[in-house]
Amino acid sequence: MKVCKREINRIKGALMTGVGYMIPFVIFGGIYIALATALSTSENGINITNPILKTLNSFGTISMSFMVPILAAFIAYGFADRGAIMPGFLGGYIATKSGAGFLGGMIAGILAGYLVMWTVKLCKPIPASLKALVPIFILPLVDGLIVILVMKYIIVAPVAGLMSAMTVFLKSMSNGNVILLAAILGFMTAFDMGGPS
């Protein structure tokens, strides 16, 4: 029971670390996309033609594209310090590119964090002269590859399917019970799923 509680607290702490490092990217991206959109909205809809606003919108989009990889990287960091950042970032990038989104990024960060923790423990008996190689070679090359393979061939498909099903479900509700839809969206946002994309 104590072990279970300790691991739950560890996961919660790592998730909060990941969200904390992700927020500046969301703020930067969200503000500049919103600014460009607000200043380009007319009766005919949104049409960003001003070159400065186009540039601001592109910067915002770039920042938002890093949201999930940064989340995953720093969730992993919350578990196992700097050595986990690179495997977590790669896992988050795969989640983003494959449609697994925010949930996929969370899973990638937790996976990378635990994997690096275990690898560091396994490497404790090696001679002190070789220990410097662990964060430079072993963690990126071995753990990075494992995270990529697990995400690509095991995690991504079901999580992407779940995210797609949730999106379809929410879109179908837009013509139904508005109060229930608002309650679900509020719950998702409160749960730090990032709300609907």
Protein architecture, described:
This protein is mainly α. It has one domain (about 1-190). The protein has seven helices and two strands; from the N terminus they run αββαααααα. It has a two-stranded antiparallel ribbon. A hairpin with a 2-residue loop joins β1 and β2. The longest helix has about 40 residues, at about 135-175. The radius of gyration is 20 Å and the shape is globular. The chain starts with a helix and ends in a 7-residue tail after the last helix.
Protein topology:
Elements: H1 2-38, E1 41-42, E2 45-46, H2 51-65, H3 67-80, H4 85-97, H5 101-122, H6 133-173, H7 178-190
Antiparallel strand pairs: 1-2
Helix pairs in contact: 1-2, 1-3, 3-4, 3-5, 4-5, 4-6, 5-6
Overall strand count = 2
Largest sheet: 2 strands, antiparallel
Major sheet strand order: 1-2
> Low-confidence runs (pLDDT<50, min 5 residues)?
193-197
Net shape = globular
Number of helices: 7
Instruction: Indicate the mean pLDDT.
Output: 87
Structural class call reads: mainly alpha
Order of helices and strands: HEEHHHHHH
Query: What Rg do the Cα atoms give?
Result: 20 Å
- The total domain count is 1
Question: Percent range for helical residues?
Answer: over 70%
Question: What fraction strand?
Answer: under 5%
Determine the N-to-C terminus distance. 37 Å
